[in-house]
Amino acid sequence: MPRPLRKIIQEVTYHCYSRCQDLNNLLLQEHGKAAFIEAIRMCQERYSFELNAAEMVANHTHLTIRTLKDEQTIARIMQYIKARTAEKFNKATGRKGPFWNERYKCKIIEDSEYPDEYTHRLAWYVAYNPVIKGLSDNPRKNSIGFIRCYLKENYKIPLPIKITIHPSFYKLGDTFDECVKKFLLYEDAYLERLASSP
User: Fold this and answer.
1) Are 37 and 98 in contact (CB under 8 A)?
2) Residue 181 domain-assigned (yes or no)
3) Cα dihedral angle (172, 162, 194, 187), rounded to 10 degrees?
4) How many CB atoms lie within 10 A of CB 151?
5) Under a CB-based contact definition with an 8 Å cutoff, are residues 190 and 173 in contact?
6) Phi-psi domain of 53 (left: phi exceeds 0; alpha: psi -120 through 50; beta: other)
7) Domain annotation covers residue 1
8) Is 141 among the domain residues?
9) Domain residue limits at 164
């Protein structure tokens, strides 16, 4: 059965998800982390797009990417990041074979009924993923820790990649502090749902 065609359009936000080969914890290894970060850095230098969220979770990654008008497609961006990660990891470790399990999965956030709310909920979901997996005790301390960019004005993560705050964040208030205050309510709601889940 042929694979379903992706919906590839510009000026939308994609939540992309990729798993490591055989669900191995390749992103727990220092070479895996370094390769993934370096691949994102190279992609940001090569193509124009907005990286709104990113985390590594041992055997998979989450990226939220907003494509721009007349710039590269999500397919090209993800292909580049995944290929460079594999290439750099294999070179550093002397390993051969694929790094990733399958093609990436993605969803267009703007296709949801309430895209802005979905974006805020998704940000906390991605941020808490490493915490749920026992890799961090706080989303603000994750390997990438993108969520800090949404909590402290003009914050730059201590990595050679750039996080761009999603435009929906600025709809939450008239000032950055107002936006943060309302954004934190989504963290509270996420933790409440997490506590009530079986």
Assistant:
1) no
2) yes
3) -30
4) 15
5) no
6) beta
7) no
8) yes
9) 13-196
Number of structural domains found in the chain: 1
Q: What are phi and psi of 61, to 5 degrees?
A: -130, 155
* 71 torsion bin: left (phi>0), alpha (psi -120 to 50), beta (else): beta
The CATH number given to whatever domain includes residue 50 is: 3.30.70.1290
Q: Distance from first CA to last CA of the chain, Å, rounded?
A: 36
CA-based nearest residue to 169, from 145, 155, 151, 157? 151
- The one-digit pLDDT tens for each residue of the chain (198 residues) are 445 556 788 999 999 999 999 999 999 999 999 999 999 999 999 999 999 999 999 999 999 999 999 999 999 999 999 999 999 999 999 999 899 998 899 999 999 999 999 999 999 999 999 999 999 999 999 999 999 999 999 999 999 999 999 999 999 999 999 999 999 999 999 999 988 876
Written as six digits, the tokens of 130 are 């490493």
Contact 34, 68 (CB under 8 A): no
User: Which of 97, 74, 102, 75 has the alpha carbon at shortest distance from 86?
Assistant: 97
- What phi-psi label fits residue 183: left (phi over 0), alpha (psi between -120 and 50 degrees) or beta? alpha
Sheet with 50-56: strands ordered across = 50-56, 60-66, 13-19, 105-108
The torsion angles phi and psi of 66, rounded to 5 degrees, stand at: -105, 120
Residue 4 lies inside a defined structural domain of this protein: no
